[in-house]
Amino acid sequence: MPQSLRNVPVTARLQMLGERLRDACAQRNWPALARGDAELAQVLGGLDVATLTPGERAALQQLRRLHQQISGECQRELERVGQTLAQMRQQRQGWSAYAESADWGTEAQA
Prior knowledge:
Low-confidence stretches: none
Number of helices: 3
Shape: rod-shaped
Helix content: over 70%
Structural class: mainly alpha
Number of domains: 1
Largest sheet: none
Mean pLDDT: 87
Strand content: under 5%
Order of helices and strands: HHH
């Protein structure tokens, strides 16, 4: 866990992580989202769930729901990119044929 967060109360830490994850997802900033997710794993690894207060447990539940929403958004983006790549692969043969025919035109002019 970053040194700057060690003295921050658990509830505030979880809320700050949630905000950073939400912002990174909204901005489609995948590297920042990956960093936030790694930090979240580190924070969660250091929590003793048995000692959490009801407020801390509520913050943890809220963060869990947010994380599930963000995971769903990432999955939808992955599917969208996969579809785009599949379309590009399907169109590659047509693009290659077009590029070759364009080359024929410049060869004929030479």
